[in-house]
Amino acid sequence: MLDTTSPKKTLKIQSYRQLGLVAFIVIICIAIQFRNSQFLTASNLLDLLTDDAILCILSVGMMSVILTGAIDLSIGSTIALSGMTTALCVSKVQTLHPLVCILIGCAVGFLCGAVNGFLVAKCAVPPFIATLGMMDIFRGLTYVISGGRWVSAYQMPESFKAIGTAKVADVHVYILIAIAVFAVAYYFFSYSRTGRKIYAVGSNQLSARITGINTAKISWLVYIIMGTLAGLCGVLWVSKYASAQGDTATGEEMSAIAACVLGGVGITGGSGKISGLILGAVFIGILNNALPIIHVSTFWQNFIEGAIILIAVLMNFAVKRHSERATLRRRKI
Length: 333
Description:
This protein has a domain at 45-249. The chain contains 13 helices and two strands; from the N terminus they run ααααααββααααααα. It has helices spanning 7-35, 42-66, 75-92, 98-122, 127-146, 158-161, 173-191, 193-203, 205-210, 215-241, 252-262, 274-293, 301-330; strands spanning 167-168, 171-172. A two-stranded antiparallel sheet has the order 1-2.
């Protein structure tokens, strides 16, 4: 479909959205502070950002997929499979270096992403169907390789569990990893040719193909990015909680999708910025941490996230429709 919204108009809308999200985050933080005077302390904010770091990393991968107009529902299962594989390896070989553990997790995630990419890009399976099927396959593999058992803290060496507690200048290493991922993603999406091709594929795949872009290659690439980041998160997750389970990260894909759409990433592809994604991920992180503080049952978490996704998508479509109509009126069509 032809995008009749001007770049300047789109940028203005995104700026208003981000300012509104910042204001909403500030209001929520102030409201929670009245319920708990310790919420806005430096130590609690650092803890909140640490808890939110994994979601932030996942959201970058999900953004890359959504920008092409696709989706990945298998990331929770990819986290579980990569985390379990790493935990089993480190429980058998206690001398494994933490960096080797991270590489193992990323490699498993890479393979999962490559399979998803192959199904979508080469076999032309709709992304929703492909990743929904692989979600169950990856989850099933997690139970198969573990025999349905957990890998508990006492089976893991201290060097591996140290990944989840390491700090640099009192800042948790997870926060630093998330910042590094955001920085690389910002450069990649804003300045690299491949990043611009991803936007082009999401905006209009047919036009992108006509201009010489290998759309299948781009689709494969974004799933590999998503899978690799999910693999990294699998290692971080297992190290943080010192436990690997078959049901690890169930439903985590919904949080990543919510962070994306709330941050202004167009669910139909072709639009979205890292700055908005950061705000969306931070908002979801604050919301998840605030629920217990204001005595809202965590059973409502999925309901709230689903409502946020629905509202954000409806707002995206409403804004886009309004912009297109305004453009057509100016052209007197």
